[in-house]
Amino acid sequence: MGSAREEVLTPARDGHYAAKQIHCRDRLIAWSHASRFKAGLALARAFKGQRLLDYGCGDGTFLAMLYASGAAPSSAVGVDLDDIQVNDCRERLGHLPGIRFARIADLGDADRGAYDLVVCTEVLEHVVELDAVIDELHGCLRAGGTLIVSVPVETGLPLVVKQAVRRVAGWRGIGDYKWTSAYTWRELAAGVFAGRRPHLVRPVYHGSTGVPFHDHKGFNWKAFADRLSARFAIERVAASPIAWLGPSLAMQVWFVACKKTV
User: Which residues contact 20 (CB under 8 A, 6 or more apart)?
Assistant: First the structure.
């Protein structure tokens, strides 16, 4: 049994994201990211044997860990933006039963209403056309289907802690903080005391895929929750890596939401 689990986790460790974050030599960074995946897996286990879409699957780490946990879906599709990412997932993880990888652009009519669960972790904070993507996630779910989404907490005290960790990690050449914008003191204060409305003009970048994106700067999870609730009924809000701190003092916040049909 152990060897079968290792057969899944070994190629997962070779993913670029896993190597830089979950298996980072900085213990705080590794612990924070590993705890996020642990929280997501705990939420997704309830959907064992169902149809799953991982939107913005990255290097496929979440799907690999879900399969290794013994809570594999009946079928799983991982989608991401570019061919390089998708082909890498196919090469390392394509042997898993019932799994396939594709580009987000390839989602079509066959995917509408096709999934019991959509998982989207640490993706939507980067999206410029957020409402359009929320609509797409809504369309991929069957009636009454569930969305599990995580986004970072980039307001309040966690913002100060994160920026300090990022700067130190950047100086040490640890992790992956290429697209981390600096804050002025005024901007940092706006983030610490942010309410439910957007509090900063967020910078927009253009990467190798040509799709514009945000980094973490100025992301407001409370404002995001209000936009998410336009299409989904939020049933649960959780925090990680330390659940009892609650979202306002945590590093990430999780939403478990049911598709609204009206």
Answer: 175, 176
Q: Which amino acid is at 120?
A: C
Q: What sign does the CA torsion over 190, 205, 59, 107 have?
A: positive
Contacts of 223 (CB under 8 A, 6+ apart): 196, 197, 198
Residue 41: is it exposed, middle or buried by C-beta count within 10 angstroms (0-12/13-18/19+)?
middle
**Do 107 and 81 meet the contact criterion of CB atoms below 8 Å apart?**
no
Scored b (16 or more CB within 10 A) or e, 148-164 reads bbbbbbbbbebbeebbe
Domains of the chain listed by start with CATH number = 2-154+216-259 (3.40.50.150)
Both tokens of 100, joined, read: 């396939």
End-to-end Cα distance, the chain:
45
Query: 218: burial class by Cβ within 10 Å (0-12, 13-18, 19+)?
Result: buried
CA distance 47 to 98: 15
Tokens representing residue 154 in the block: 């980039």
Residues 6+ away with beta carbon under 8 Å from 167: none
Q: What pLDDT is stored for residue 1 in this prediction?
A: 41
In order of 37, 172, 185, 193, 194, the CA distances from 189 in angstroms are 30, 26, 6, 6, 8
pLDDT at 156: 96
Q: How confident is the model at residue 175 (pLDDT cuts 50, 70, 90)?
A: low
